[in-house]
Each structure stands twice: as structure tokens, then as C-alpha cells.
Amino acid sequence: MKNPPINEIVAPEKCTGCGLCRNLCPENAIRMEIDGEGFLSPRIDAERCVGCRLCLARCPQRRAPKLERSPKPEAYACWNADNARRAASSSGGMFTVYALQILARGGTVFGAGYDERLDVRHAAARSPEELEPLLCSKYVQADVGPVYREVKETLAADRPVLFVGTPCQVAGLYAFLNGDPPKLYTCDFLCHGVPSPLFYRKWLDHLEKAFKASVQSVNMRSKECRRNIMGVKLCLSSDPDRRIDFAWYDKKMEFLGRAFLKNYSLRKRCYTCPYVRLPRLGDVTLADFWKLGDLGPYNPEKKNGISLNLINSEKGKRLLEWSVAEARFIRRELSEAVAGNSSLRGNTKEPRLRDAFVRDTVSCDYETVVRKYHAELFGTRLARLKIKMKKLARPLVNLLRRR
Ligand SMILES: Cc1cc2nc3c(=O)[nH]c(=O)nc-3n(C[C@H](O)[C@H](O)[C@H](O)COP(=O)(O)OP(=O)(O)OC[C@H]3O[C@@H](n4cnc5c(N)ncnc54)[C@H](O)[C@@H]3O)c2cc1C
């Protein structure tokens, strides 16, 4: 007798949309679709589902993959020794360092890139040129598509793989493979949560309206923005040679980044994500070393981007050993990394208005959401003026204190 079809793999507020179930289903009965909050979630086709329950057994939100990972990983401040590659990355450019090592060994690198519609999805790179679209942080949930299956095929052909993704995607991959194959290398990153693809799309539409041209390319974490290391860079159809850039705190343009930094637009599960703490699942954890030097001497390299990398496993150590000639590694105390990065200390706090905000990003147009939450996210005029005055007065206060 046929088993009844599965209704739900995990409660919606616990699903991360990692795509394990979609990749695993032997009947291809699961599709990832935009849900009521604008995020990718599994939709089960009851006609196709044979009730095998494989998705229930392996879902990493129901049972975490068991791997050998250090609860006290080695922490390094590090950066790519190639200045051009470092400048083209979000942080210290360490992703490229490890990726080139895998490519040099005949392997394939899987990471999140922009497709031709500028949607963010995982893709494969088999040459240094193909790495380029994967560089830099995209502050939106990436669609992994069928990539876990492609990873398995590559490993079956005895070729090494580097997979980079959010901690929940790395968990999804290990759950799919049901183990830790010797030629698989993974990097997760410190992730305080992901905004929805629907809100990201509305932001792009808004920019196209504002500039009266279509956006040809976008970089959500460009170092070329003159005013700030956290900047957005656009290329428009109206003038492909002209680059438009603006800072993440630009009150007119950058509401997507602001809502992300203030944690309003994140997926519900991100506030209770089980994969934020140590031990981490990735062989290496990539991050920004925001507070490097705040507890010791200032490092002038900081302005060019310094990464924090945690080496969580033996394979992580191997990646580091392969890379010593291509990058600068400085051993730091783990406590310094934890003190300087709230994402390592626990879950992101859910703002009181998060549910209302996310609902509005689905039902309202972008401009209405901006109007409604502008004061909440950027502060009132008076609050902004106070911050400005404090900043202006700081050198004078410091001078008086020193006397
Ligand atoms: C949503 C998000 C939240 C983050 N939150 C934090 C944080 O709280 N604290 C912190 O220190 N660092 C955070 N980071 C990581 C940080 O921004 C850098 O990506 C990281 O330090 C790697 O920098 P890099 O210079 O070594 O590599 P880069 O060249 O910048 O490469 C980034 C790598 O990440 C992958 N990637 C980018 N965007 C996505 C995505 N949306 N989904 C899956 N994979 C992606 C790319 O494929 C690439 O492999 C976050 C990144 C993202 C995407």
C-alpha cells in the first residue's frame, strides 16, 4: 500500500529554505517557491510524493549533521596577498585564495552569484574566470537550485569540491551527502541572517525607476564607494561605462542594506538559527574581522579589508597550509574574534516590528515600505542631528580629556 504524501517537512518558522529536500527527493516532488513572506520554501506535489519520508529523516532543521569540528577553532586575521583580488572581494578576499587552490587541483567551486536576471543563485566555477561572478557578499537568500546534486556528481568523479554558502546551506549539503566525503571542502560564513529575494527584487525595481534605466550589474558590497567601505555599485543600461555608487547608509537609495543591518528583513528562522554558534559546520568560517586591533595595536591594513577565518577541521587546516604563500595569516585569540563579532555570540535579536515589516515588503510597493519605516530604521531628524553633533564634538572632547 502507498504511504500517504508528506504535508510539511518542518514548520514554516523553522525552515531556512536550504533546498536539501528539493535536491534529495527521489521523485522530484519538491519545488522551491516564494512563500507568503517572500522567501524560498519547499512546496510538495502530493501527486508525486510517495511518502518515503527521506526529506523528514534528513532535514537539517530536524536533525543536525554530525561532523568532527573543533569547538575551539584556530582564529586568524588574514587577507589575500594579491591586492587586485582583495579589492574585488567583500572582506580580505580569502574566498578567492581557497577557491584557486581547489581549481589548481582540478576541482570545482560552488558559490552564490548573480544570474542574467540578477537573481542570486548558486553556480559552479571550473576556471579562475568563472569565479568572478561568485565574488562578494549578496545580502539576499541565494537559491541553491540543484547544486547539492552537482556537488555529489563532481565528488563521484573523484574531483575536489569547494562549496561556499550560509551555515544552513552548508548543513543542507552535509545532510544531502549524509557524511563528510574526503574531497569535499566547505566554507560557511558568519551570517546574522538573510533578506528575502522578493524584497531584493523590489529594491532593484525601485533603483531602475529612480535612474530610469535597467540595472545591468550590481555589487552589494563594493569597496569602490568613495564614502564608505560598505557600498553598493551599479552599472546601468543608459550608460554602461558609468559606475553609480552609494553608501549603505544613503537615506534615499539604500533601504535594503539598512533593513538588513537593523535585522528587520531577515528570514524568521535566522533569529533562532541553530548553526550560528561554535562548533561551526564549515571546514573554514569566513567573516569580517571588524574589531581587529581594537583590543591591541591598530592594523593599517584594516581599511583594505581584513578577514576573520576560523579553522574548524583537519580539512580546514589543509586549505590554510595550501594557501600560506597566497595570503597573509596572523594568529589571533579566539576570544578576540568572539568579542568582536556578535554573530559568533548568539542569534540575532528579532526586532518588535519584524513581522509587520516583512508582511509589508510582500503586500506594499517598495516606496510605501520606505515611507512607513524610514524613521524606525534611520532614526528621526532630531536623533540624526544629535549623532552628527556628537561626532563633530568628539575631537574637542578628546582634546579636553587629554589635558
Ligand atoms: C547574508 C550574509 C550575511 C553576512 N553576515 C556577516 C556577519 O554578520 N558578520 C561577518 O563578519 N560577516 C558576515 N558575512 C560575510 C562577509 O560579508 C564576507 O562575505 C566574508 O567575510 C567573505 O569575504 P571574502 O572577502 O573572503 O570573500 P568574497 O569574495 O566576498 O566571497 C564571498 C563568498 O560568499 C558567497 N556568498 C555571497 N553571498 C552569498 C549568499 N547570499 N548566500 C550564499 N553564499 C553567498 C560567495 O559565493 C562567495 O563564495 C555575511 C555574508 C552574507 C552573504
Notes on the protein architecture:
This protein is 33% helix and 19% strand. The protein is an alpha+beta fold. Among the domains are: 12-58, Alpha-Beta Plaits, CATH 3.30.70.20; 197-264 and 364-401, no CATH class. Strands 5-4-6-7-11-12-3-13 form an 8-stranded mixed sheet, sandwiched between helices. It has a 3-stranded antiparallel sheet with strand order 8-9-10, covered by helices on one side. Strands 1-2 form a two-stranded antiparallel ribbon. The mean pLDDT is 92.
How many strand elements?
13
Mean pLDDT comes to: 92
Order of helices and strands: HEEHEHHEEHHEHEHEEEHEEHEHHHH
The assigned structural class equals alpha+beta
Q: What about the largest sheet? A: 8 strands, mixed
Helix amount:
25-40%
Total helix count? 14
What is the C-alpha radius of gyration, as a whole number of Å? 22 Å
- Which percent range describes the beta-strand content? 15-25%
Write down the overall geometry: globular
The unreliable regions are none
Ends distance: 86 Å
Major β-sheet strand ordering: 5-4-6-7-11-12-3-13
Bound molecule kinds, no repeats: flavin-adenine dinucleotide
